[in-house]
Specification:
Blueprint lengths: L5 H6 L6 E3 L2 E7 L3 H18 L4 E5 L2 E6 L9 H16 L3 E2 L6 E8 L2 H11 L9 E2 L9 E5 L9 E6 L2 H13 L3 E4 L6 E5 L5 E5 L7
Parallel strand pairs: 6-8, 9-12
Antiparallel strand pairs: 1-2, 2-4, 2-5, 3-4, 6-9, 7-8, 10-11, 11-12
Helix pairs in contact: 2-3
Length: about 210
């Protein structure tokens, strides 16, 4: 199966969905728990029909849906087809999507030696240690933890938060954080990521799937 990139997903014109951290995400404003359950049941029937099963998170008053092909390691045409069917099911129930509310939360740990610390964090989070620069739970029950290469010098900020948002929402999220007392540390890598800091100097990044410009 061929993995789809941001441009290919955009060409699919999935108005309800956004590509975030290698998966399609949507939030449907169900209004009531009962309506949310009805949508879950319809999605369940579609999933069985296609033999392709999304991650569902039903809350009051919305339903979060995550779609990816685990066997391919990302988004494929199969996900696009199921996304369209899910949007149609939601529309039939009079449910609107809210893509502006979407975001994915990750943690980054600065370390000079990821191989030394990764086994500990994999054990702590009950996640499989697959090597490389991250530890993640395929079910997304806990945030992805990735390891950013850094020098050994002290002091350094050990952890920082990465918040991945739809590209069209990055500017508003950054402005809101700045208005709430934050400062801009660097936008040299925007729109891929923009580094901000809280009033105490703790850093965080607003990220998108777009590549750095220039």
């Amino acid at each position: 199966m061929t993995l789809l990139n941001h441009d290919q997903v955009a060409e699919a014109a999935l108005a309800d969905w956004r590509l975030l951290q290698g998966a399609l995400h949507a939030r449907f404003r169900t209004g009531t728990f009962a309506v949310g359950l009805e949508l879950v049941n319809r999605i369940g029937a579609l999933a069985e029909e296609m033999d392709h099963h999304p991650d569902l998170d039903l809350r009051y008053p919305h339903l979060n849906v995550r779609l990816l092909s685990h066997d391919a390691g990302g988004v494929t045409g199969r996900d696009v087809r199921l996304a369209r069917k899910i949007s149609h099911a939601a529309s039939d129930l009079g449910i609107n999507a809210d893509p502006d509310a979407l975001s994915v939360f990750d943690l980054a740990l600065d370390t000079p030696d990821a191989d030394r610390v990764r086994p500990f964090w994999a054990a702590l989070l009950a996640a499989e240690d697959k090597g490389g620069d991250e530890v993640h739970d395929d079910s997304a029950a806990v945030p992805l933890l990735w390891f950013q290469a850094s020098g050994a010098q002290e002091p350094r900020q050990r952890f920082h938060v990465d918040v991945t948002v739809p590209p069209e929402q990055a500017g508003a999220r950054i402005e809101a954080a700045l208005a709430a007392g934050g400062t801009l540390v660097s936008d040299a890598d925007a729109p891929s990521f923009t580094v901000l800091a809280d009033p105490d100097g703790n850093r965080a990044c607003i990220c998108t799937v777009l590549e750095r410009q220039g």
